[in-house]
Design a protein that fits this description.
five-stranded mixed beta sheet; four-stranded antiparallel beta sheet; 33% strand
């Protein structure tokens, strides 16, 4: 059972997450926040002028910082319903000799190149931007069900816009319902979709990864929701040369979503969200074009909210069964820092969304609700910071809300 409560005063010994997640005032104007959704039509590459740099770049700071995100809010006149349907644009910020170089390039996915050739929006987005009408979608779905007795095969766009990371000589841009795209880390040229030497048996990889630097491992996950067959969660540990050191496939009833996860010495930790519901009725509506996967993401009171602990193959608890612990109903946006005290006691933080959350998007929300400067706490008003203490042996979860 979960226990809710308000954050108390500072304790004698600060926890790791309290040190890493302390309050930072970074005021932003509403206009600055809204610019995050601007449409970018051109790729860019230039040295940032000294006049545009606040302060001084340390002369001994070397390296490149990669970021990825949607780069467009419309495609050949079709306004996107949600930014997540937009093609990914990877930014490389390179620090060298006290200077900064910025390079920004679109991920040249198959979908983007085909639409560029035809100069029109072709592939529907997971968040609700559609090319087909609901009437045509409904007729196509009914035709497939009546003549073939199965739902039609349907291909969404892969905008490759959610994350980007470098490991073992590869720079990968990812979007969790498709294959990652490999990019040249120096030029950002798209080299093509990459199944990591056949390791991605489900044909996709999740947006987020974890690093085990003690073992020098990259841990990736992939999840296929269950409908006609059980859900499948693949967990893969790669060494620096992209050799699969460990692979496991598990099926946990009710675990139909895995955007992020935690890596502990002995466990992989997932959250079974009550915001994802997989039914035949919903699938028919999606295939008919009456809704989309993103538009169905909302709170379902009849679904459980649980933490799922899967023992790691090389951990001290490798022989244990999967452990599930009930918690408060929320949707985890991202996990933060974590600490495993012993085999049964775990502490971590996560940014969570409450029961009112859905994926509706309104570019004007930040501007309308803000006056003057936006503080960190105002920006994160609906993204509540939670800390959780779990006892696996007692199946107990204590949540502290830090709004």
């Amino acid at each position: 059972m979960a226990e809710g409560g308000k954050a108390q005063g500072a304790s004698a010994a600060a926890k790791p997450y309290e040190v890493l997640a302390h309050d930072i005032e970074r005021p932003l104007t509403a206009e600055e926040v809204a610019r995050g959704w601007d449409n970018l039509e051109e790729e860019r590459s230039y040295w940032v002028p000294t006049a545009d740099i606040e302060g001084t770049i340390p002369a001994d700071l070397y390296g490149t910082f990669f970021r990825n995100g949607p780069g467009v809010n419309e495609v050949y006149g079709t306004v996107l319903k949600h930014p997540i349907d937009g093609d990914g644009m990877v930014a490389a910020v390179t620090f060298l000799n006290g200077q900064v170089h910025l390079k920004m390039s679109f991920v040249q996915s198959k979908h983007r190149m085909e639409e560029a050739k035809q100069r029109r929006y072709i592939y529907d987005g997971q968040m609700g931007t559609r090319n087909r009408s609901a009437l045509m979608g409904t007729l196509g779905t009914l035709g497939s069900v009546v003549t073939k007795w199965r739902l039609p095969q349907y291909q969404y766009r892969n905008p490759s816009n959610t994350n980007v990371f470098y490991w073992g000589g590869k720079l990968l841009s990812v979007y969790e319902t498709g294959l990652p795209h490999s990019l040249d880390p120096h030029t950002l040229q798209t080299l093509g979709a990459d199944n990591l030497g056949g390791a991605l048996e489900l044909g996709l990889v999740a947006a987020h990864f974890r690093l085990d630097m003690e073992r020098m491992r990259l841990i990736c996950i992939a999840l296929r929701p269950g409908l006609r067959r059980p859900s499948a969660l693949d967990i893969m540990e790669f060494d620096w040369d992209w050799k699969v050191i460990h692979r496991m496939r598990v099926s946990v009833p009710g675990l139909n979503y895995a955007h992020d996860f935690l890596l502990l010495p002995d466990y992989y930790v997932f959250h079974m969200t009550p915001f994802i519901k997989i039914t035949y009725g919903q699938a028919l509506l999606i295939m008919a074009g009456l809704t989309s996967p993103g538009e169905t993401l909302r709170y379902y009171p009849d679904l459980p909210s649980r933490f799922v602990f899967i023992p790691r193959p090389e951990g001290r608890c490798a022989s244990r069964e999967i452990v599930q612990v009930d918690t408060d109903p929320f949707h985890i946006y991202h996990f933060g820092t974590s600490e495993q005290h012993d085999r049964d006691n775990v502490e971590f933080i996560a940014v969570c969304l409450g029961k009112e959350f859905n994926m509706d998007f309104d570019k004007k929300v930040s501007t309308v609700k803000a006056a003057g400067k936006l503080s960190r706490s105002e920006i994160l008003h609906i993204l509540r910071l939670h800390s959780a203490t779990l006892s696996l042996s007692e199946s107990l979860c204590r949540i502290v809300y830090r709004s």
